[in-house]
């Protein structure tokens, strides 16, 4: 019988993924509640516990502010020595083929129960076995294909004589934990530590009667250096495979997002076409209303100019009345009244007839003036109403955002007559509606957009 494999690769250290702040496509949301969180502590709090006192002691001894450490996390992030802010390993027993989380009925499989029991003990004993690796985040995932652990830890090395007495250094920590200083890429303290952790996992499997094998090779056929090299290679391959899986998930999400974005953009283009058609028709209608109002105003101005008697006509009538009054005064001869002090005049009959004729003319002129005064007043009121109507239409055009559409509409039709303008506008509106009803006949800009997509 082929045994199950033990996997112990390095992880990417995505705390948001580990703590399900976001969920990848391979996560089953219905089972996220099955996950176990052993410890969840922020990086800032973990660094304060591990290095806060050492940072303050170091800063107290610095006279220059530019040498003080304001944020040790940022300092490690920008380090040139290859330190990581924290490290992660993924611990897994078996694969989705022999240790699936659930069966066809959605129930936890027996193999998964064995794996959960083993991984639970490994997580609970990690800190005790590794006192210099501060475990600040540890979760067991059961909402993916196979049960597995994410263990995130910070190496805390002490005993430095210069600088900070306590620092982040994985190699120094492992040496303080008893592992020999590394001699090369495939023979160093990190590989030795990972080999010890795998041995511990194999011991847990043997205690539970679980048959296991090293992924890709039988350990019994390898020497220790060969085993370390194989484990390192296996670790790199597993990490690369997991990285590629995550990249594939990211690409799939990007592809879905792009497809949705393309669909949304296509819908927006169609909506813009409909909106432009509506703006075009509104601009056309407002053009007709404004031109009609302006025509009425022009006609009223012409009538007013034609019947304007206020200046020249009034002056002419005044001169005529003044001349006739002077003539009538010269024709009248004063007559003394013996019986009263009131003065009388006498005129010739021909002059009296002239006086009566002038009086009738004056009365007629007064009636004519009153008539035209009323007509002029009415015309002025009508012009004021029409002017206000034109201004209201113009303000409505501006408030509805139709200004550009209105100007473009007028410019595109000049210098045609208004009749030709309206005919062309109706033809354009009909063509836009036809294109909207027949999606296969697209405007040129839509065709270019589709080609680019």
TrEMBL record:
* Biological processes per GO annotation: DNA recombination
Alphabetically sorted, this entry's keywords are: Coiled coil
An example Gene Ontology molecular-function term: DNA binding
Give the residues annotated as coiled coil: 227-310, 362-396
Cited InterPro entries = Mob_Pre
The record's annotation in CDD domains points to: MobM_relaxase
Q: Please give the residue ranges the record annotates as the region Disordered.
A: 421-453
Query: Residue spans with biased composition (Basic and acidic residues)?
Result: 421-433, 444-453
Superkingdom as given in the UniProt entry: Bacteria
Question: What family does the database annotate?
Answer: Belongs to the plasmid mobilization pre family.
Protein name, entry field = Recombinase
